[in-house]
Amino acid sequence: MFKKEAEGESETCRAVVLTDFGGYEKLKVKDIPKPEIKDEHVIIEVKACGMNFADLYTRQGIYTFRGMKPPFVLGSEAAGIISEIGAKVEDIKMGDRVLCWSYAYNMFSEFVLVHKSQCYPIPENMTYMEANCIVNNYLTAYLCIVDFGNLRSGQSVLIQAAAGGVGWAATQIAKSVENVTVFGTSSPSKHDLIRENGVTHAIDYTKTDFVEEILKISPLGVNVILDCLSGNDFTRAQKCLKPLGRIIHIGITGMMQGEKRNFMKNLKVWWQTKDIGMFNLINNNNAVCGLSINNLFEKDPDAFRCGVGKIIDLYKEQKIKPRIDSVWSFDEIIEATKCMVERKNIGKIILVPKKEDNVDKVEQFQN
């Protein structure tokens, strides 16, 4: 909860602050001023926040929204209860349970100020933890598989990092289409779980060449590829595309190697990804697409919110089910970050403001 440090001082709340670009030591839990309400905004008492791979890019300084520089509060998504409401807010009310997002960060905090357009009511049976999977994971997956990918019955898809937050969501979205074959890459320890989630052919990327494995099973390749890796893996993956196949690029996890930024690794991955051979695309009848949902929200917020609504509907129809990997308190932000850096998670990593308020939930997932 927020507090007053002394008489006459402003109210404060706890938040995860990125103090500078660099290693784990740059993540600090600090008291910051509690946000003040504005006319078209709401203040949300946060119950849970969602971690994403983009948080790792941000910490290392590989990419930040509009080149933002630290210090700032990390996080792009949260869920909680509306505790204050602006004078010009009509569609939502005090006490509503909502998910919210901000690609200018500030979500890893006990209280967040969010524009009314960046809030969405969540169904009664959806937990605050599950709500943190809807935008960055399931909306990304939906736009890739359904909109760009146009996946249809009888087709096939390759999902890179099938055990991650987006990969887990994409598998379920793909399986909502009848008679679809799903290839998914992950470390072998995760194969049983990704198969249970709907992956038809699990590929151990640590020991085998995913291109060779796919072409052994499906010599013509696949119809759709969801790529979050970038670099050489992105370039080689195009060898797996059938005629009229589509590859959708959404991330740069290939740049991530260890705790701190590796400039040579970053440069190599960027160099391997920067050129798209138009002649090859024409000759092979393929398409390459790219997706950034934060830019989509800025340029076409109606399409963004329409997509969120479709995901909520799929949840209500029980066609999708988010998987929570682990839950950590703000004070455990470094441990939570290591879990993601070391690719230990299967599904979503969640942060909660205080462990003592969520002991049952934290222990349930961490033991």
Uncertain regions spanning at least 5 consecutive residues: none
Topology as a string of helices (H) and strands (E)? EEEEHEEEEEHHEHEHEHEHEHHEHHEHEH
* Helix content percent band: 25-40%
* Class from secondary-structure proportions: alpha/beta
Largest sheet: 7 strands, mixed
Overall description:
Helix content is 32%, strand content 26%. With 367 residues, it is α/β, with parallel strands linked by helices. Strands 4, 6, 7, 8, 9, 16 and 17 form a seven-stranded mixed sheet that branches. It has a six-stranded parallel sheet with strand order 12-11-10-13-14-15, with helices on both faces. Helix 12 links the parallel strand 16 and strand 17. Helix 7 packs parallel to helix 8. The radius of gyration is 21 Å and the shape is globular.
Entry summary:
With 367 residues, this protein is an alpha/beta fold. The protein has helices at 53-60, 128-131, 134-148, 165-175, 191-197, 210-217, 231-237, 263-273, 278-284, 293-299, 301-316, 333-341, 359-366; strands spanning 3-4, 11-18, 27-33, 41-50, 72-73, 77-85, 97-101, 111-115, 119-121, 156-159, 181-186, 201-204, 222-227, 241-249, 287-290, 324-329, 348-352.
